[in-house]
Design brief:
The chain is an alpha/beta fold. β3 (46-52) and β4 (55-61) form a beta hairpin.
């Protein structure tokens, strides 16, 4: 049986001590009404007041004298606040913990039955690291009706994909719209089951998924595991755990004047969403928008890059099998391939309710311009030039490997890639020495060819043709203006037989060099020195992009202070780009990195229209009726009525509100009655 004295004793004792009253000697429950008898033992001067049958009283103890005084207080005075402020939150927290823990344990001990799907592999390019196709550099001017596919790390021919026309894309969107009209009525249970099927397949087929992504983009298998599979599984896991909670109807306050109504919002699927995604992560860039939009009740049409279209054949088969397993419409998720006119058709299609574009600034501007014609809302993620600030008190054993991973993962082809390493002058030498030593040890080549012979590479190829030449131009410009190469910087030294650029470290980069302003999107580390925190922030913010930022310092407060001053959409402390692995957080930037967000709560709700509702709580007792003075034709005292109403509800003090109430009462009297009353008075 719970005895409140166990809780009240230390609370009252603390109160007495802090107020110089001494200490609580004893607590007793007396009387049928649960009165609490408090014995206060005074060891010094003080005054105590209490409630008893005799009313208010006070007792003063002299210095050095010990006095024991019984005070009677109704126990309910303590028990009710105790229950409300202490026990209720405590029990609520216990319930949440037990509920969450038991749910997790049940999932582990009694797993949900998830169907398995099988997706046959078509040829050796999907099933094997080794490939029999002879190397052949891609054609510079392919046919406008086909998209040639090849392995950028080996120039191996992978066949072609169709270059879809506007008519093709409009037909795809029509079928997607029909599928969405059915899917929007599906339950969250069905949608979760679809995601579980995908997750189960992904975990069971990691190697194949990474192999296909590597062949299409040129990245090492471990980078595919990081950037393709891991983040996709994290996305699915978060949506499974929290997705329904954030898409359920949400109560809102009804306001001051509408106090008798209940207000809430509901999240309604937008319909067909067109997603234009880049080539750097062919698997994740397809499944990332799929997971959120399908769970929200939308249909998705995804236009993949012409530089990474081959993998879409395998990934689309996976999607179709998963849809079939839950009985979802087969056209709910579709992938289109082609060039710029294909993307333009997707943006301008009247059936597309929202567009998500991930890519470069020039193309992003074209997407916005095209969307104006149909007033289609657009989410733009246009890349970045993220800084890493390494303070003088940073742990270099942590900062150096993280900066290496941030710069050279996927050969630097990351929108959140670390393109500017801003290092304090006092540790610049040690940092640079460690980085240069590590970069010179990096192995570059074809990831799958190396894997076939039991070897490993650290850096793969540049996925997009012409990128090695573009990066070389940035390096040559910087060197000609005084920059210093510490490693790499010469594309002729890269391995032959693929689109490679060697891992590069460059310092002494200054304003006026193109590499400081343009997005590199390649395996180049630019090291910049700073002496003060203000200087570090000035260097970091002197950029047109503002996607992410990172700060390394042993002083957490200092690191957080610097991160808050960065002009960016996301920031990590003593880590790199970890906001993306926290899938409850939104993804997106500021300035030329774009606007709006995908990912997280904001991104998930962004898949929907927000629809507002207001309804009478007790309609038979109170509802909204137009007051007689405001009914058409309005009465002469209509303005006085509204003015008094506003004073009554929004007055900043009691007097104003009372005056408003009186004025409202007067203005509510019919004009004829008022006039008659005036005449009678006269």
């Amino acid at each position: 049986k719970f005895d409140p004295r166990f809780v009240m004793a230390p609370m009252l004792d603390h109160f007495a001590f802090m107020n110089g009253l001494g200490t609580i000697k004893d607590l007793l429950w007396v009387g049928p009404l649960g009165f609490m008898e408090i014995h206060v033992s005074f060891s010094g001067g003080g005054v105590v007041g209490g409630v008893s049958s005799g009313g208010w009283f006070g007792v003063t103890g002299r210095s050095g004298e010990s006095v024991s005084v019984p005070i009677y207080v109704p126990g309910i005075f303590f028990v009710l606040p105790l229950i409300w402020f202490v026990m209720f939150p405590f029990l609520k927290g216990v319930f949440r913990f037990v509920s969450s823990t038991s749910s997790s344990l049940c999932r582990l001990l009694v797993p949900i039955q998830v169907p398995s799907i099988s997706v046959p592999l078509l040829d050796s390019s999907e099933s094997s690291d080794a490939i029999s196709s002879s190397p052949s550099p891609p054609k510079q001017q392919p046919s406008p009706s086909i998209v040639p596919c090849y392995d950028p790390a080996q120039y191996a021919d992978l066949g072609t994909m169709p270059a879809m026309t506007q008519k093709d894309v409009f037909g795809v969107c029509e079928r997607a719209s029909q599928a969405q009209n059915e899917w929007k009525h599906s339950s969250f249970h069905t949608r979760r089951q679809l995601l579980r099927i995908l997750q189960k397949f992904i975990l069971a087929n990691q190697e194949t998924i990474c192999r296909v992504a590597s062949r299409d983009s040129g990245k090492p298998l471990v980078d595919a595991a990081f950037g393709e599979v891991m983040v996709t599984c994290e996305k699915i896991n978060w949506v499974l755990s929290e997705g329904e909670k954030w898409l359920k109807p949400e109560k809102r306050s009804s306001g001051t004047m509408m106090f008798y109504k209940k207000a809430w919002v509901e999240f309604v699927p937008v319909g067909v969403v067109g997603c234009i995604v880049p080539w750097n992560y062919p698997f994740h860039n397809v499944f990332n928008p799929l997971v959120a939009h399908v769970f929200a009740g939308n249909a998705v049409v995804i236009k993949v890059s012409e530089h990474a279209s081959w993998s879409a054949k395998y990934y689309s088969r996976v999607i179709q099998e998963a849809l079939k397993a839950v009985g979802a419409p087969e056209n709910l998720v579709q992938i289109v391939t082609g060039y710029g006119d294909c993307g333009n058709a997707l943006v301008t299609c009247p059936l597309v309710s929202k567009v998500v574009f991930v890519g470069s600034c020039p193309v992003g501007r074209k997407v916005m311009a095209a969307a104006v014609e149909t007033l289609t809302p657009v989410v733009l993620e246009l890349g970045g030039k993220d800084p890493i600030i390494v303070c003088d008190d940073a742990d270099l054993t942590q900062a150096v490997p993280t900066a290496m991973r941030g710069t050279f993962q996927s050969c630097g082809q990351n929108c959140m890639g670390a393109e500017r390493i801003i290092v304090h002058s006092s540790v610049r030498g040690a940092f640079t020495d460690q980085v240069v030593s590590a970069v010179k040890a990096l192995r570059q080549g074809s990831p799958l060819a190396a894997n076939a012979r039991g070897a490993v590479v650290d850096c793969g190829a540049m996925c997009m043709p012409g990128e090695a030449d573009r990066i070389q131009g940035l390096i040559d410009d910087a060197v000609s203006k005084g920059a210093k190469l510490l490693a790499g910087g010469d594309k002729t030294a890269a391995p032959p037989g693929g689109q490679f650029y060697p891992p590069t470290v460059i310092t002494d980069v200054k304003a006026g060099m193109r590499i400081l302003d343009e997005e590199v999107f390649g395996p180049v580390m630019v090291i910049l020195p700073f002496d003060t925190d203000d200087e570090a922030i000035r260097i970091a913010n002197a950029c047109a992009f503002g996607l992410g930022g990172n700060v390394f310092s042993r002083n957490q407060n200092r690191a957080l202070s610097l991160a808050r001053r960065l002009e960016c959409g996301m920031a990590s402390i003593n880590d790199f780009a970890t906001t993306y692995m926290s899938q409850s957080l939104p993804f997106g930037g500021v300035k030329e990195s774009g606007f709006e967000r995908f990912g997280g709560v904001e991104g998930l709700r962004g898949c929907c229209h927000v629809k507002a509702y207001a309804q009478d709580i007790v309609p038979w007792l109170m509802d909204t009726r137009i007051p007689p003075p405001l009914q058409y034709p309005v009465a002469p005292n209509a303005f006085a009525f509204v003015s008094s109403l506003m004073r009554m509800f929004y007055g900043t003090d009691l007097v104003t509100r009372v005056r408003g109430l009186v004025g409202l009462a007067i203005a509510s009297i019919p004009v004829s009655s008022t006039a008659a009353s005036v005449d009678k008075t006269k």
